Amino acid sequence: MPHLSAEVSLLSAGPHGHRARMRDTLLTRGPDALADDELLEMLLFSAMPEGDTRPLAKALINRFGSFAAVLAAPQQTLIETPGLGPHSVAALKLVQAAAIRLSRAEVIGRPVLGNWDRLMAYLHAVLAREKIEQFRVLFLDAKNRLIADESQARGTVNHTPVYPREVVKRALELHATGMILVHNHPSGDPTPSRADIETTREIGRAAALLSIALHDHVIVGHGRWLSFRQAGLL
């Protein structure tokens, strides 16, 4: 019996015992009981079954700032990070994709103008941590239900070329009767530029000619967003 006790103590003190305790914490007390580095550690050891993932998890949090920021980091940046390989990077990106799809499920096929908080949560998940400016269009039906969310263009850190004719053409293809324009500012500041304002007006004029309503243009920053309509710009 003493020999067995020694084995149990050794197991509970090793990496496998630590992982078991973390799983128990997650399942019995919920994810809020775990810190960012602990959540990341658990995610990493699902992709790296051998070895201690604690040091790597802590290093990633220190570098990127948070669990969410690690998930949203560019794939190539993660691949080039010491300690991470294809399996672990794939696991991180899988969780990020799952989070975005869960957020999208809360808004797709539903009236979005009356569910602004859910819409902003979704757009924040998709765009807030993007390092490159991206222009998206939310296409709505006659009941203002979201029928499609499509990326129209990706640009640089501070500019994305957008063509009003292509935006309106796509709305006609989808039989959309309304649109919400969305893009992100990687700088984190959602204040619209003069080009943002002029592009919005051009798209609005082109859409109006075909009886397609431009409901809003939302700029997503870091933890902040700006609505053109609320700001009196539309």
Write structural notes for this entry.
With 234 residues, the chain is of the alpha+beta class. The protein folds into 2 domains: 2-102, no CATH class; 111-227, 3-Layer(aba) Sandwich (Cytidine Deaminase, domain 2), CATH 3.40.140. It has helices at residues 2-13, 15-29, 36-47, 54-64, 67-72, 75-79, 86-105, 116-127, 164-173, 194-208; strands at residues 134-140, 146-154, 178-184, 213-220, 225-227. Strands 2-1-3-4-5 form a 5-stranded mixed beta sheet, with helices on both faces. Helix 3 packs across helix 4 and helix 3 (36-47) crosses helix 7 (86-105). The termini are far apart.
- By secondary-structure content and strand pairing, the structural class works out as alpha+beta
- The counted number of beta strands is 5
pLDDT < 50 runs, ≥5 residues = 1-13
The CATH level-2 architecture of the largest domain is identified as 3-Layer(aba) Sandwich
Mean pLDDT: 87
Terminal residue distance? 77 Å
Count of DSSP-assigned helices: 10
Domain count, please report it: 2
Based on CA inertia axes, which overall geometry fits? elongated
Helical coverage, percent range: 40-55%
Mind telling me the CATH superfamily name of the largest domain?
Cytidine Deaminase, domain 2
Main sheet strand line-up: 2-1-3-4-5
User: Could you please say which CATH topology of the largest domain applies here?
Assistant: Cytidine Deaminase, domain 2
At the first level of CATH, the class of the largest domain is Alpha Beta
- Give me the strand/helix succession: HHHHHHHHEEHEHEE
Largest sheet: 5 strands, mixed
Instruction: Give me the Rg, rounded.
Output: 23 Å
Strand % is 5-15%
